[in-house]
Amino acid sequence: MGSIGRIILQRLGLGLLTLLVVSIVIFVAVNALPGDFAQAILGQGATPEAVAAFREDLGLNRPYLTRYFEWLAGAVRFDFGTAYSQAQFAEFAGSDAGSGLGSVAEMLGPRFRNTIFLAGLTALIAVPFSITIGVLAALYRNSVFDRVANISTLTSISSPEFFLAYILILFLAVINPILPVLSLVNDEMALTERIRMTLLPALTLTLVVTAHMMRMTRAAIINLLASPYIEMARLKGISPMRVIVRHALPNALAPIINVIALNLAYLITGVVVVEVVFVYPGIGQLFVDSVKNRDIPVVQACCLIFAAAYILLNLMADILSILSNPRLRHPK
Questions:
Q1: Which residues, in sequence order, are CB contacts of 294 under 8 Å at separation 6+?
Q2: This prediction's pTM
Q3: What pLDDT does residue 36 have?
Q4: Which of 43, 81, 137, 305 is the most exposed place for a label (fewest CB within 10 A)?
Q5: 113-329 in CATH: which number?
Q6: Which residues of the chain are modeled with pLDDT < 70?
Q7: Could you report the per-residue pLDDT of 7-56, keeping only the tens digit for each?
Q8: Are 134 and 217 in contact (CB under 8 A)?
Q9: Where does the chain hold its CATH 1.10.3720.10 domain(s)?
Q10: Residue 124: its pLDDT value, please?
């Protein structure tokens, strides 16, 4: 158990180091973009004095290194500062009107919960569906079912997300008005209504991530079917389905867990296009709006959240793979 603990601590340390490097890249890349952010926010009609005062209020005239460490220290406390749009409103409305305005963290909170809800609903649909199709494809490999499953999943993963989204809108919202076109969810909605509003983008993401998980499940199980213990189970007269589910699938968990975790990471970081198509009020939609409005603190916070979610889920995949594989738990 001591070796497992050391391995987990090493992975966590590497994850934190990776996140630190990513935070530097995010800050440098965003602040290296051309143009004056204060001038862009205030508009071309702003006087040089107003631009200079606004830059000073936002801290844009301070050295990059100082601003980075202040941003990093705030991010550790989940304080990403004030959005430029809020700061602009406070500038024009006065300090009293501007006090108490929503910070970046307050803007991100409900949006992030919506994105997690969408990713969770997609995972509840995609993971059991993908594993089931993968097990059946391995059981009936080289059959018509196997070929159809492979062609269908490869077609879905090869199609752009917006194309799949519009196809689903056409068939499930226009020709057959079963689901709403726009996913305008809010916290006051009942759970059933919220699921109904979120189902169309969840189905779109399911089509995108199913292929990876299904094909990895199929490949991992087929790779184990030639093992001696599988042959022994067959010689004992155990049914093929039970051989796969009871003997092959548990030993194929490590690669399956890896691909599931990677796709769950994609569900959080890759939802931007789907959220924009369905006008879903998640963090991806907020990210696009902030890029369009040049709201740099919000853009930096969104990028850091995407990176942290991706790194965390990769760490979970790595740790779960180690725990599920005795050869990794006890390396020679």
A1: 35, 37, 40, 41, 84
A2: 0.83
A3: 67
A4: 43
A5: 1.10.3720.10
A6: 1-2, 35-36, 40-41, 85-102, 324-332
A7: 778 888 888 999 999 999 999 888 777 766 777 667 777 777 777 887 77
A8: yes
A9: 113-329
A10: 93
CB 197 within 8 A of CB 183: yes
Structure tokens at 191: 């759970």
Q: How far apart are CA 141 and CA 88, in angstroms?
A: 61
| Rg of the chain, C-alpha, whole Å | 24
Q: Are 332 and 75 in contact (CB under 8 A)?
A: no
What distance in Å separates the CA atoms of residue 183 and residue 199, rounded to the nearest whole number? 9
Burial 283-299 (b: 16+ CB within 10 A, else e): bbbbbbebbebbbbbbb
Contacts by 8-12 with C-beta closer than 8 Å and gap 24+?
Answer: 8/319, 8/322, 11/315, 11/318, 11/319, 12/315
At 270, list the tokens: 């890759």
